Each structure stands twice: as structure tokens, then as C-alpha cells.
Amino acid sequence: MIAAPASPGFERIAAHLQRRARWRWSEVAFWLALLAAVLAFPSRAGFFNEILIAGLFALSLDLILGLTGIVSLGHAAFFGLGAYAAAILSSQGLADPTLGLLIASALSGALGLATAPLLLRGSDLTRLMVTMGIALMLGEVANRNADITGGADGLNLTMGPVLGLFPIDFTGQRNAALYSLGVLFLLFVLARRLAQSPFGLSLSAIRENRLRAGALGISTSRRIIAIYAVAAAYAGAAGALLAQTTQIVSLDLFDFHRSADVMLMLIIGGAGYLYGGIIGAAIFIVVKDVISGATPEYWEFWIGAMLVVLVLVGRERIAAHARRTLRMLVPLKGRAA
Amino acid sequence: MKTVQWISGFALAAALAAPAARADDATVTVGLILPMTGPVASTGKQERAGAELYIAQHGDTVAGKKIALIVKDDTGAADVTKRLAQELIGNDHAKVLMGFGLTPLALAVAPVSAEAKVPEIVTAAATAMITEKSPYIVRTSFTLPQASAPMADWCLQNKIKKVVTIVSDYGPGLDAEKWFGDTFKKGGGEITEAIRVPLKNPDFAPFLQRVKDDAPDAVFVFVPSGFGAIFMKQFVERGLDKSGVKLIGTGDVTDDDLLADMGDSALGAVTTHHYSAAHDSSENKAFVAAFEKANGGMRPNFMAVGAYDGMALVYHALEATKGAADGESLLAAMKGASWVSPRGPVSIDPTTRDMVQNIYVRKVEKVDGQLYNVEFATIPAVKDPYKAAKN
Amino acid sequence: MLTILLDGIAYGMLLFVLSCGLSVTLGLMNFINLAHGAFAMLGGYVTALLMSRAGVPFIATLPIAFVVPALVGAALERTLYRRLYGASPLDQVLFTIGLVFMAMPIANFFLGDQPQQVHLPAWLSGRVEFHGVGIGVYRIFTIGICATIATALQIFLVGTRFGARLRACVDDARVASGLGVNVDMMFAVTFAVGSGLAGLGGALAADVVGGIDPSFPLRFMVTFLIVVTIGGSNGILGALVGSLLLGVLDVAGKYYVPSIGAFIIYFVMVVTLILRPQGLFVRGDGR
After folding, report:
1. Torsion angle of the four alpha carbons B302, B304, B310, B311, in this order, in degrees rounded to the nearest 10
2. Which chains have 3+ CB pairs within 8 A of A?
3. Mean pLDDT of the residues in chain A
4. Contacts of C101 in chain B (CB under 8 A)
């Protein structure tokens, strides 16, 4: 921690930070709108559930990519681990979803903690490959141990009701969406607090310039490990939600496609201000649904084209526009990684 | 992100505003869920063409009801399949679900079909235990035990004593390995080695080297349709065809979809399966001609026939119930239904809800300059041995 | 046993030709090009289609399988890639993933999703026995061609002036430019040759992997990246050692422990990265 002298500049900064920490009306409106959508359209609950879970997954990526500037092509490792952990727990008799969620999330966090040190060394490519390699290895491990994981056939689960009251199986689709929304909201509030805390600010510093941050006395390695573990736990929670609300897990959860898709969602929505993941997930899934209905084989082309254009035009330019608009709405740092 | 927020708002509104299909008594909606993209997209393509051909040939009205076919792409991901099934039933009021290109996709929908009492017609997936997962699952494809056990019998009758099995390491592969192996061993044969190959990106070279070193009479192979070509090539490349090791297996390895392109390395392979595009019957000749015409010369394979017969089953059931489209009546009408399909005479076993059909032993030969599976022996009315053994 | 070793070497040499372009691009331009597999796919398709539609003999298609992706690579480099040389790794990753996502449906649209097969001529098929060790003729051919390419590249890099200038650019582009080396042209030529080699590799590999289909780039992207990661970005030698190591381990692993399957190459990569994060052959400045 940096010892701060009490000076007029310091007071101004403190006041600014406090202002940012307050919830804006637009944020409240956003969450109320999500709640209203789930309640008002019970027939689309499955669809919303998919968006909310993808949003949580993208939020977890935002913690490392948007906030800290770590590129990961294997984030699906934690997603898949959380899902399979929840599924295996359920098949071993643990029917309570919330407990399963906590344990699965903790397991993913532990894996994140264990693999984070690998990220501190090597070049950009090796870091990328480490993340990918872990995801691929986990996929293979799940494939090998088919007697526990169901292998290529996948695993079906049965879940008990949430908190003993609200069933989330086939009859409780709307409850499932609300459960996902609840978990997403809670984790979001935590992430928001984290991002605005001194710890979160130091992560932004690390993203901007790791060398300089280190020179300022911030222990970059430890903080990177810490946030990676937290992001892994969040991704694990998203995976567990998927397993619990859809009652099925299969090996494709570890696929490269999942890692690439979540990164796309985050980039589309904008990285660095925490809402981007959820917005990007919504756009991605809706667009995919619409285009898939028309030409299922070619929606990948449009996603690719969008990416190429996005990068060439410059995410910075788009992000600059976004920053200006969002500075009024959302009090977090808006600069994309 | 103002633009982006606008777009997202519009898109969400548009998606939500799309009115749910109204429950229309005069229409029977059939939801066809297939992997149209992803690694098994070729299955989706063949199946869709098969189902649509049936409707084109027989008209879209049966027993006074209009058939509305909705095709959805689940990209091969089980959670998407489940969501699509729920939406088809809930929003589009589908009375029948069809398709399911892989075992996990069929299994994902099992609880949905049981809960909603909607018949789930499996037209592609072939692991034996699928039909046990819901009383509303009916299958028009086949099961691996159905195809593998007769192969073992043929081997025993043809003086093949030592066999090495190579299968892809997943549900259907393990079924094939077990049922071929058990039947063969019971008849006195020896399984020298049972090799399992990873499902993704297989390179058969090292495994085939093991086969060569084991020097059996024959090698029994099961790989999903799509990998047959590379297996054949490497089999020949390793010199196994010259070393006197016969190539046998289920028909998936000589899939009609890819057979024409496989080259001469496939000649002489003996396989057992429930359908060959070269099957000599008037129904099949008409089917193949119509299919090729409607699909730019594409040859139909067993996946197309599975979906074609799935539609046939729906039509038969509706005629039997005189148009009543609720799940229970349809299911009752489906059990025991029998008709002549392009593959031969078929019926739905009323107890197991699996297909009872002929299994043919065929050899790959050149017919009119193209490679075909030419049938030379028939085992009539084969029931799924997996369930028969349980009863 | 020796057969398996030779099989592994053949597979490794193939991987080398496929991946060396990626390794050099990474070392020279510090550019992560995930779309490398798309050039390999292009080369594979060129060979398959020339053979099946125009009846061109296999050997004659190989130079064309090199040239076409090289030209496409040069064109893309001039127009698109060069804008992103200074960009963040994230941007490079996103851009090249976008290109792959575009390339695959384009292939699907024009050529369908069935794998296009390459039917080898009779003189390249079959096996030879040599003191009890059998090996496929095609594998010998592959080893031969790839070894020739590797030697040619090494001679080129070390023995010619152009090679010397290239190495100068790799070491420090700014200083090289200051000394009068046309860095832009170096980049363009290197990228083109790398893409061409990928295309040639794709053409050679088409027979081994069961045909070229639109999903080829994504399926093999991971393999190429693993080779480059293990080998390090110090040009040819690293890519060669990485490929051979991977090829032999993969084939041997599958032979001796079939149930291990693909796990082995991922495991080796992670272990290598733990022990030597820069890969086996490191560049001087540790990039």
C-alpha cells in the first residue's frame, strides 16, 4: 500500500473515487431491466439463462483481461472444471445447488491459484499457450476418466431445489434464470467493489504499465496471481450454474471455441468496465440465434468479419467514444485493454 | 458503446417481440434438432435432406393435419440441444422432436421428452442405452450392438479366429467393441487386443502398427463416419492389406457419404450395417434417385435414411391415430409400427422402442465405376441384442 | 520400434514444414498469427483440387501449393497485417482469429464440408522393407522433401546476403533499418515464404490427415502453436527440434500407451513451459 500524504490533491482524488463508488441510476435501471425481462417472459427463460451464465463467464474474463490486461485463450478450463465439479458432486449425492456452486467455484479458484505462476514467465505467446494448454489438458483428463465424467457421452444430473424451496429443473425454468441472475448480481457487486478498491486500482496500474507499477512498489506478481484465482473462481461459478440449471455437462465445455467465444463476447461489449461482458454476451447470443436460424453454416463468417473490422478500425477509437458516453453512466474506468 | 447499446437494445427487443407460435390444432409441428455446424455437420446435412425429401414426396398433409418442420442447429453442444428442445416444445408447440446427431445430444433431451410427454425420435445416435433414458424415446437409426454382433457371427462362420479390434473411444465405439468381442469370444474366437483410439484428430498410424505387430486374421474397426477414409488409407499404407489381414467392421467406416472418394484402398472391406445406397429394392432405387436429384448428386447414407424413416414414422403414427397429435397417442401408435423403408422391412419394437431391421453383410466393390457397399448376405429382423440380453 | 521412430520423424518433419513459417513470423515480427493454419488449408486445397479437377500430377501441384498461399500471404501482409505490427498481443490474437473464422466458412461455401482427398500416385504408395524395418514410401518421400527444405532454409539464412540481412532484422529491426536494410520488404518476403511453406506443408499433409476440409485451420492451430512454443522462436533450428520432438513423442506415446492419446503433447508443452518458459531455443534478447 502506498502511504498517502494529506494534501489538497489527495482530497480531490479521494472525493473523486468516492463519487465513482456510488451506484448510478443507469446501473440500477440495468439490473431492474434484467429482472423484469426474466419475470415478464417466462417462456424465454432458458434463453435468458444462457445469456446470464455467458455474461458471468465474460465478467470473469473481464477481471483478468479488462482490468489487469492478461490475455487468456483457455479460460474455458475453469468454466469446464466448475461445471464438471458441480455435476460430479450432484452425481455423488450432493443435491443442494448453492453448496455445490460454492465448492465448484472454490475448486476452480484453486486451479487458478495453482496455474497463475505460469503466467508470470515467458513471452506473450508462451503465456497464451499455457492458458490454452491447461484447458486442453483438462478436456483430455475429463475424456480419460469416463467412469466419473461420462466421457464423450456427457453427464446428466438431477438437482434439488435452491435453498430447499425453488426447484430449478425442467419445471422450474424461470427459477433457474432467477437463480443465475441472483448469483450474477451478487458476484458483480463483489467485483465492482473489488475493482474500485485500492487493489483494483493497482490492477489497472499493472495493466497500463507493469514495469512502472512494479517500480512504484506494487507487488505485481502476487496481485496477478490473486486476481487470476478470483477470475477462475468466477468462471467456475458460471460453469456450475450451467451444469445445475441445464442438468447436463459434456466435453465441449473445455473446447477452444468456448474460450474464443467468451473473449469475443467481452470484446464486443467492451472490456474494462465490468458491464461489457453481460452486454456482449447478450448481443453475441441474440445475433447467433438470429443468424443461425437463417444460415446456420455461415454465422461464424460474420463474427470473424466483425472481429477483423473491430480490430482494424481500432478498439481504441470505439472505446474512446464509449468512454465519453459511459463516464456519465458508469463510474468505472472505461479504457479497453 | 452507444451504437452497440442501441443495437443490443434493438436486437433484444426484436428477439423478444418475435411472437411465440400459436397452438394451432390443424398443424403438427415437428422439431428437427441437428448439428448443422461443428465437427459432425455432415450428419446434420444428410439428415435434414432425408427428412425434407420425405415431406416433399408425400406431401405435407397427413390424416387431415399439416406438417410443419422446424430445423434447428444445436452446433453439437448438449446444453444448446436441451434449450432448443425446451423452446420448441414450449414456444413452438412441437408435438414431436427428431434428430440428435450424437449420444450426449439425445441424452440431454431425454428428461425433457419424458416430462413433457413428447416423442423423441432418435434418427442418428447409436449407443444402445439411449432408449432406456426416457419412455418417450423411439429410435429409427440403429444400435452398434445390432450391427456388431452379426459381424462376429460372420467371422466365426468364415474361419476367422484371431481379431484385433480398433474403436473410437466413446459410447458407440465401446458398444461395438463389447458386442463384437463378447459374441466372437462366445463362439470360440480370440480377441488378441482391443485398442481404443481418441475421438478427436486421430492418427491411426501407431495403432495400425500395433495391429501389424499382432498379426491377426482380421481387424475389426469402428470409427465415426468421417474418419473412414483416413483409416483406409493408413491401413493400406502400412501394407496391412497385403499382409493377409482382413478389414472388417461396421458400416460407419465405409459410409456412403464418403465412400466414393476413398479410392481403391477401400476395396474388399467387409462390413455389416443396416443400410447401403446400393441396396437392391425398388423403394431404395426410388429413394436414392430422388435424393440425388434434390441434393445436387449427393449420395444418401444411413443418416439420411434414419431421418427419412423418422418422418415416415411420424406419418404412420398420425394415420394410425387418425390425426390425434398428443404425445401418448402418438407414442402408442409408434410402438409396433412397421413399414418398408429404403433399407428394407422395418418395425419399431413395442417393448424397447428400438428399430427391428435387417442387417446386411456387404463388401466394397466397384459398381459402374464407383465404390458401393454391395450386400451379399442378410440377417433378417435383428433386434437390439443389448436389450434382448437383459430380458 | 524403429518403424515407430521413423513414423514419428516423418510426422515431425511434416509439422516442421507446416510450422516453421509461424516460428519465423513470430521471431521476426513478434506477431502471433493464429491464421497460419488457413494458409496450410489453402495449399492443401490447391493440390487436392488441381489433382481431382484438372488431373495435374501430384508432384507438379506442389510448387503451385507453395506459390498460391505465398501470394495470398504477401497480399494480406501488405494490406492488413502490416497495420497491426505494433498492436497489442490481444489485438493480434483477435484479428487473426477473425481471419480464421472468415476463412473456414468461405472454404465451406465454395468447396463444401466434405474432406477433399489427395490420391497419391502409385509410385508414392505402398511400403518398402529394409532389414526388417518397414516404412511407407510416402513417409520416406515426406522426410526427404522436408529435410531438403530445412537444409535449404538453413543455407539460405546463413550463407546468403539476404539471409544475413534477415537475421539482422530479427535481432534488431531498428538498427538494421538504420544500416539501410529494407525492413518492410524483409517482413513481406518472410511472411510470404512462411505462408507458402505452410501451404506446401498442407499439401503434403493432406494424405496423412485424411483430406482437407474447412475445419483444418482450427483443428491444427493448436498443434502448430505447441510446436512453436516448445521450439522457441529462434528460427529454424527451434522449429525443427520442436517438431521432431513432438512428432516422435506423439507417435510413440500412442503406440506404447494407446490410452494416453493426445494428452501427451499438451503435457509436454506445459512441462516445457514450466521448465523453460521461452521454449527450448531462446533468442538472445529473451523475446
Report:
1. -150
2. B, C
3. 84
4. none
